[in-house]
Amino acid sequence: MIDIERAIKLLGSGIGPAAVATTLGCDASYISQLLMNDVHRDRVLALRMEGLQKQTARDGEIDDLEDQMLEKLRELLPYITNVRQALQAFQLLNAAKRRGAAASNDITIQTNIVSINLPPAAREHFFPKMNQQGEVVQVGDQVTVTASLQTLMQNRLKLKKLTATDAQEISNEDRTRTNTGENAGSEQATV
Q1: What is the pTM of this model?
Q2: Which of 103, 127, 133, 162 has the fewest CB neighbours in a 10 Å radius?
């Protein structure tokens, strides 16, 4: 069994999925499936964000040192006899590796989309109706419809409201049953 906690820590430290799979001795597809789980993906992102914040804080300290060095160079510039040493010190600070800004692009988790091309005979069987662009417009009796993002969001909100209403009705029914059961029990006790 693969240690999920270890996989999450490795992924959270910025190690890529392929390297984590190799380290844990599992298939890369397992790590990909692990990242498809919202809870695991959120934990990986949280660990990466925590690391990024630490690296950004360190970058801030390096920036402060760089600013101090610039100020010192400004003060010493009229008195400098060995310019090379002053410039080398500045160049050393200026070349310090910036971790936070560079790592921000690594936060996103990539997902692969697999395109499946079926032979024409299979396409006719499974996807009898396709448009000119090769998009499926009907599968069996089900006709596909292109919808705007706004329409999809409105439908999702309606579904959430309906689900909440159904849950409330079920809760009310449970309370009614419980109250009825309690009353029946008290009647039996008095008889």
Answers
A1: 0.40
A2: 133
